[in-house]
Prior knowledge:
Layout: H1 2-13, E1 21-29, E2 45-52, E3 56-63, E4 68-75, E5 78-85, E6 91-97, E7 103-112, E8 115-121, E9 127-135, E10 141-148, E11 153-161, E12 167-176, E13 179-188, E14 195-203, E15 209-218, E16 221-227
Antiparallel strand pairs: 1-2, 2-3, 3-4, 4-5, 5-6, 6-7, 7-8, 8-9, 9-10, 10-11, 11-12, 12-13, 13-14, 14-15, 15-16
Amino acid sequence: MKKYIILFFLTLFVFSSAACEKEEQTYDQSGEIEESAKQEYSGAIYTVRTEYEDGTYALRDYREDGIIFAERLYDGNFLKSESFYGFDGQLEQQINYRQNGDVLTDTLYTVNGREVIAKGYDKNGAYTGKTVTSLNINDLVESVVVYNKDGVLNEEYFYGYDSQLRCIREESVSYENNIACVTVIQTLDPENGEVLLEETVQYTPFGAFVLHEVYEYRDDDIILVEKYDVNGNSLPIEQ
């Protein structure tokens, strides 16, 4: 779960490859920005090419004022994704492609105060749902709420930080039939982000209790340390 959330967070705010950067090259060019950009801009731009150890590379276009305008991620000759930014540097659109060049997903972003709203569309332009990300006063992700195309709540994620702004708590809630079926709360090591403790509460889509367990992560072992019944009473743990 933690890995999924981290990847989700990076995809939403960074849109770069997860591989390590190898080198950067910068070169100048002039002319019009391609027509697919969301805001018109004429003038000198410069492009930064960043290569990654997995063979992918990104091309990022910047305006004269240094604000990013567009980004393209390639795997060889395959264009994996394009991202377009407004004049304020805020992400406005990201398009992901299949290897045959067809659109896989198209996501439009709007900013409302400390909320970032991402609306998704499929290759035919049909609406697929939205994700609302809320930031705290330190511009760190406080919560992520995911809705399906019908506006029904699918998932929620919540994050807690210490006084040094390090993430120490992650909570995910999955819904079915408007019932919180699975809740997972992870306590993290602020130094390295590794999971120290994980609490899971599970219900069926009809609201029937399934389990409530707490696991402790010790080196390479995951150990059941607490177990509760439907009323929250502690249960014996088999050794």
